[in-house]
TrEMBL record:
Its EC number is 3.4.21.102. Keywords: Hydrolase, Protease, Serine protease. One of its GO terms (molecular function) is serine-type endopeptidase activity. One of its GO terms (cellular component) is outer membrane-bounded periplasmic space. This is Carboxyl-terminal processing protease. The keyword Hydrolase applies. It is an enzyme of class 3 (hydrolase). Residues 190-210 have a biased composition (Low complexity).
Length: 715
């Protein structure tokens, strides 16, 4: 019988053959004219999507409407350029895009490009005129910051008013930042090199509000001059790539078209070993959002940049910040990356709508800290184990390279040598990775049997089994997850839950990504006759779905923990269900498996946990903070009266400081690196400090503290 890896590999080869055959069928012309690159690309991509996607769409008016809505959303995500009359012109094509893509044409895209080019030219003169005059920050008026809550301007006058408020808001934010900086300098004690007053260092001259306002407008003007310069650098290839990717994204959020340059960015940007800040970024609705912080990176160590933050501006050291709002992701990434030792200053918008300037010194991402690490917890004489797994890593190019399953196995061996009475496996913020490692890792905790089912569009599922009958660790187990636990993390958590092998704890659900993608190089699929117009880029296709051994999919719904805890990220619109056009949840026939003999008493453990959480001051404060965040997130209008705006910012900061103070006052967890590991590190102070950094944030982790309590309830 063929192995699952061989089956999946053969399936990928069949799909590639489909591309090649389709290329010959679709592109041989009878009129003697050489096909254009855009025509070939769109037809090839559409053929690949129709033949190879897990759930291919019908190319009809419903498809056309989806492409129309998503492309319009991306063409002018802020709704600050196009007029309603422009949208009405574009809407004439909303039921014709299916016909266009089948012909290999793109009249809809061309009209959108023409209209945007004209409006960009119009707005360029508009913002310069508005910024030539001072703003009055004493007037009571508001600005809506959420683009979903505004409509396209009805006419040029309404558009000018919207831009006036927008530019006033941008200027006010900078004035407020200047006031904060001036106040900090004023509060600093003066340095002195001698007792004589004449030699004492004097403070900078105090700027008046009017001077700050003029300087802020000057900065905003440069900010938008740079932004519009970048807009005008968009070429035909960029526009075609955006349109092609929009078509791909209507199939599901993880099906994408990569232009040659974007494929390279996908492979190397913000992951692995590189010089930069160590943050994974994504572009969503014209905004650059932090999706993940790479463990061990400069951002991770600095500690202020968080998943969910939106990057507004980027500055190289002391230079003037440059806006990245509406900027293409690869361009934003290139600005944030840089040489080790250099400074980048990020102006970010936090999920509670407050803004913050974060200074990060770029560094080489420390790969070692992306590997599994363990520690021991001593809770009133009870010794427990803790394993942090940042992702499911594996070196696919080296059979002897490190793998997450092998490393977790080693950590379990070390914890067993420490005689721990229970283990916490932490999968929070683990976005997934190697499927095979997830299967092997589940096998460390259960006897041999099925772990996950994988089904492609052909229908019959492949069951991936743990074939090792040995149980590496058979004691009490808690698996921690949150809404950023995805893919392979969800497979492992689901298997532990279905086997009743341990207790899954965390936020209301995991991310909900239960799909498998494969990348196809379009250049390899195209016949030689198209060599003159290559490269075409790549197509990332969703080809399969994951299913639990109980038959349910991990797609869309994710994994619902056995014990749900208040979570600081619960108010964020993060997860598969919040994306555009996600594949839905479904179920298939369960696999045959036998539950763990010593299954934990989930109901009893849940009741005890709920009682502790309800009486915890830290969890109560966390729940209160989340409620305030929800309110602030929904209240997207900001006052353009400077005193009101600063009061709102001060209140947000006070609430954040109060939360941090209460968490810091909590009884710390007695967690420490393993004695064995410290002994191995010897006199290497860098590695010893790294081990200490690993456990430091865990000492005040209230979720981990509750996981410890649940473990102790089972002992």
């Amino acid at each position: 019988m063929s192995s699952p890896r061989l089956k999946i590999g053969l399936y990928a080869s069949v799909l590639l053959a489909v591309f090649v055959l389709a290329s010959y069928k679709l592109y041989r012309r009878n009129d003697g004219r050489s096909p254009q690159k855009d025509e070939v690309l769109i037809k090839a991509m559409l053929q690949g999507l129709s033949q190879a996607h897990y759930q291919p769409e019908r190319i009809d008016d419903a498809f056309s409407k989806r492409v129309f809505d998503l492309y319009l959303k991306r063409l002018d995500s802020s709704k600050k350029f196009l007029l309603q009359s422009d949208v009405d012109q574009l809407r004439k094509y909303q039921n014709d895009i299916d016909n266009q893509v089948q012909r290999g044409t793109h009249e809809f895209m061309d009209l959108g490009t023409q209209l945007m080019a004209q409006r960009v030219k119009d707005i360029q003169g508009l913002y310069r005129d508005i910024l030539s005059k001072p703003f009055d920050f004493t007037t009571d008026e508001t600005f809506e910051t959420e683009s979903d809550k505004v409509t396209f301007a009805a006419n040029a006058a309404a558009q000018r008013e919207e831009w006036r408020k927008f530019l006033k808001y941008q200027t006010m934010v900078r004035v407020s930042e200047m006031m904060d900086e001036q106040a900090k300098k004023k509060d600093k004690p003066l340095a002195s090199t001698s007792a004589t007053p004449s030699s004492a260092t004097t403070s900078e001259p105090t700027r008046t509000p009017a001077q700050m306002e003029a300087e802020a407008r000057k900065r905003v003007l440069k900010y938008f001059d740079d932004y519009f310069k970048d807009l005008q650098q968009t070429d035909a290839n960029d526009r075609l790539a955006m349109y092609a990717n929009t078509i791909a994204n209507t199939y599901d959020p993880h099906t994408e078209y990569f232009a040659p340059r974007d494929k390279e960015t996908f492979d190397i940007a913000m992951t692995g070993r590189f010089e930069g800040i160590g943050a994974s970024l994504q572009e969503k609705d014209g905004q650059i959002k932090v999706s993940d912080i790479i463990p061990g990176s400069a951002s991770y160590r600095q500690g202020e940049l968080k998943a969910g933050d939106i990057i507004l501006r980027v500055a190289q050291g002391p230079a003037e910040p440059v806006s990245v709002e509406g900027m293409r992701l690869d361009k934003a990434v290139s600005m944030i990356k840089g040489k080790k030792g250099t400074e980048v200053r990020l102006t970010v918008k936090k999920p509670d709508a407050s803004t913050k300037v974060i200074s990060i010194i770029r560094d080489v991402v420390v790969i070692e800290e992306t590997y599994a690490q363990s520690a021991t917890i001593n809770d009133n004489g009870t010794k427990l184990g803790y394993i942090k797994l940042p992702n499911f890593y594996a070196d696919f190019n080296d059979n002897g390279g490190r793998s997450s399953a092998a490393d977790v196995k080693k950590e379990l061996e070390k914890l067993k040598a420490e005689n721990v009475q229970g283990v916490v496996l932490d999968l929070r913020f683990n976005g997934g990775g190697s499927l095979q490692d997830a299967v092997e890792m589940a096998g460390l905790f259960v006897e041999s049997g099925p772990v996950v089912q994988v089904r492609n569009s052909q229908g019959a599922p492949t069951i991936l089994n743990d074939r090792d009958p040995r149980v590496q660790y058979g004691g009490p187990l808690v698996v921690l997850v949150n809404k950023y636990s995805a893919s392979a993390s969800e497979i492992l958590a689901a298997a532990i839950q279905d086997y009743k092998r341990g207790v899954v704890m965390g936020s209301a659900s995991t991310y909900g990504k239960g799909t498998v993608q494969r990348i196809f190089d379009l250049d390899e699929a195209m016949p030689a006759e198209f060599n003159s117009i290559k490269p075409f880029g790549s197509l990332k296709l969703t080809t399969s779905k994951f299913y639990r051994i109980n038959g349910g999919s991990t797609q869309f719904k994710g994994v619902i923990p056995d014990i749900i805890l208040p979570d600081a990220y619960s108010y964020l619109d993060q997860g598969e269900k919040e994306t555009d056009y996600p594949l839905k949840w479904d179920e298939i026939t369960p696999a045959r498996y036998r539950a763990w003999n010593a299954a934990p008493a989930i109901d009893k453990l849940r009741q005890a946990s709920t009682a502790r959480v309800n009486s915890s001051a830290s969890f109560k404060q966390l729940s209160d903070m989340v409620a305030r965040m929800v309110k602030r997130k929904d209240d997207t209008k900001v006052s353009l009266k400077l005193t009101n705006y600063r009061a709102e910012q001060e209140q947000a900061k006070a609430e954040s400081d109060k939360y941090e103070a209460i968490q810091n006052a909590a009884q710390p967890i007695a967690i420490a690196p393993l004695t064995f590991d410290l002994r191995q590190l010897g006199a290497d102070t860098i590695k010893v400090n790294r081990a200490s950094r690993f456990v430091k944030p865990l000492k005040k982790d209230i979720t981990l503290r509750e996981a410890v309590a649940v473990l102790k309830d089972q002992i």
